[in-house]
Design brief:
By secondary structure, this protein is α/β, with parallel strands linked by helices. Helices cover about 40% and strands about 20% of the residues. It comes from Candidatus Nealsonbacteria bacterium CG23_combo_of_CG06-09_8_20_14_all_37_18.
Length: about 375
C-alpha cells in the first residue's frame, strides 16, 4: 500500500517541541494545525458529529491517534469506541446474573439474524480471538452500547473486521441512528517491521498494567541485570506507586517504586503469531480503498529516510532509545538516535511520532467536512 506523504514541516525559524509533554504538545498542535482545530471545535459546539471507521493493522495506532485527536479537539464530544472493549465488557456481563438477564432480554427484542439467542450466548461464552462473532450480533451490540451514550462523534475501532462487513459499514450510520452525520474511513498504513518491534519490546507493569516500550517509549527509571547484561524498565506511574503504598502498609517507598516491568507472554515472537491477521487487515484496507461514495482519510506512520528532511521536522521522528551502564555512578544512561526501519517495500524509513500523524488526521477531516 502506498499512501501519500503528508507534509508537517514548518517554514521559518526552527522550533523544537517535546511531543511527550502535554503542554508542549498543545503548543505544537496550535502551530501546525491551529486554524483547523478552531474550525473543528466550532463544528462540534454547534452540535454536529461524524462517524469514522478506523481501519489499520493490529497495533497500528488506531486508538492512539483517535484519542489524541479527541484530546486536542474536544474530549467531551468525541469518543473512541472499541468493539474489542465492548465484547470484553459483555464477558463480564455474562458472569453477572442480573446483567446476563438484561442482555438476553435486549437480544430477544433487538437481534435479527441466523442464530438463536441460546446459540448467541454460547458463541459469546466460547469465543476466541481466532474467530469473529456474527456480524448481526456485533451490530445489535453496538446499537445497544451507543444507545447508552449521549450522541457524540465516534471513532469506531474494530468494525469492519472482515471483508463481508465492509458492506455493512456503508450503511452503519443509518443502523446506529446517525443518519444525517458525515461518515468516512480512516485508513492507517504502518510497516510491519514497526508493528513487530512495538510488540517485541513492549513491557507492562504487573501492578497497574501501564504499557511502555524498552526501545521506543521508556520510563524515567531504568534497571540493569549485570549477570544477564540486560536493561529493564521500572514503572514510574505515580498513581501506581500511591496504590501500592496504600494497599501494603508494610511496604517501603523503595519497594513500591521499583516494580520491574515485564513482557507479555508471546511478545518475544513479534508479529509471527498474528501474520494471518495482518494479511486479512491489509486486504480489508485495500478493499476499503477501492470503495466509491465514502470519503477516506489516509494516514501513514512512516516516511522514507531520504525524503524526511523535506516533509517533517526532526523532533517529529520516533527516536530509538538505547542504554549504557555507568559503573561509577551505578546507574543506566538513556541515549537516543533516530529509529530507522525497513518499510514493506524494503526502503529505509523513519517512523513518525503520533502528533504529526494526528496533524494529518485533523487537516484531512477538516477538508472532508468542508470546513
Amino acid at each position: 500500500m502506498q499512501f501519500p506523504i503528508f507534509k508537517t514541516k514548518t517554514q521559518g525559524p526552527e522550533r523544537n517541541f517535546d511531543l511527550n509533554n502535554p503542554k508542549e504538545r498543545e503548543k505544537y498542535f496550535n502551530l501546525k494545525a491551529g486554524k483547523e482545530i478552531k474550525k473543528l471545535r466550532d463544528y462540534f459546539r454547534k452540535g454536529n458529529t461524524f462517524v469514522a471507521y478506523l481501519l489499520g493493522k493490529k497495533n497500528s495506532g488506531k486508538g492512539t491517534y483517535s484519542k489524541m485527536f479527541s484530546e486536542i479537539i474536544d474530549p467531551e464530544r468525541i469518543n473512541h469506541f472499541s468493539i474489542g472493549d465492548m465484547i470484553r465488557e459483555i464477558d463480564k456481563e455474562l458472569k453477572d446474573k442480573k446483567k446476563r438477564k438484561e442482555l438476553i432480554e435486549f437480544l430477544e427484542k433487538d437481534y435479527r439474524g441466523w442464530f438463536s439467542i441460546k446459540e448467541l450466548i454460547s458463541v459469546l461464552e466460547k469465543r476466541s480471538t481466532k474467530t469473529l462473532l456474527p456480524t448481526e450480533l456485533i451490530l445489535a451490540l453496538v446499537k445497544r452500547e451507543i444507545g447508552k451514550r449521549k450522541k457524540k462523534t465516534i471513532f469506531i475501532d474494530g468494525f469492519p473486521r472482515d471483508l463481508d462487513q465492509i458492506n455493512f459499514a456503508l450503511f452503519f450510520r443509518d443502523l446506529i441512528g446517525y443518519r444525517d452525520d458525515p461518515d468516512f474511513f480512516v485508513l492507517i498504513n504502518v510497516p510491519e517491521k514497526i508493528i513487530d518491534e512495538r510488540i517485541k519490546y513492549r513491557v507492562i507493569c504487573p501492578i497497574c498494567q501501564t504499557s511502555r516500550n524498552l526501545k521506543l517509549l521508556p520510563t524515567s527509571k531504568i534497571g540493569y541485570e549485570a549477570k544477564r547484561k540486560e536493561f529493564y524498565l521500572l514503572c514510574d506511574n505515580p498513581k501506581c506507586e500511591e496504590s501500592r503504598l496504600s494497599s501494603s502498609p508494610f511496604a517501603t517507598a523503595r519497594e513500591c517504586k521499583e516494580i520491574k516491568m515485564v513482557r507479555k507472554e508471546g511478545d518475544t515472537f513479534g508479529i509471527k503469531p498474528i501474520k494471518e491477521r495482518l494479511k486479512k487487515d491489509e486486504k480489508l484496507i485495500n478493499q476499503a480503498l477501492s470503495l466509491y461514495g465514502i470519503p477516506k482519510v489516509l494516514l501513514r506512520n512512516s516516511i522514507p529516510k531520504k525524503l524526511a528532511s523535506n516533509f517533517v521536522d526532526d523532533y517529529e521522528i520516533t527516536p530509538e532509545y538505547y542504554y549504557e551502564w555507568n559503573k561509577k555512578e551505578n546507574k543506566a544512561i538513556i541515549k537516543e538516535r533516530p529509529w530507522v526501519v525497513l518499510d514493506d517495500a524494503g526502503e529505509a524509513s523513519y517512523s513518525l511520532l503520533p502528533p504529526p500523524v494526528v496533524v494529518s488526521l485533523i487537516k484531512q477531516i477538516t477538508d472532508i467536512l468542508n470546513l
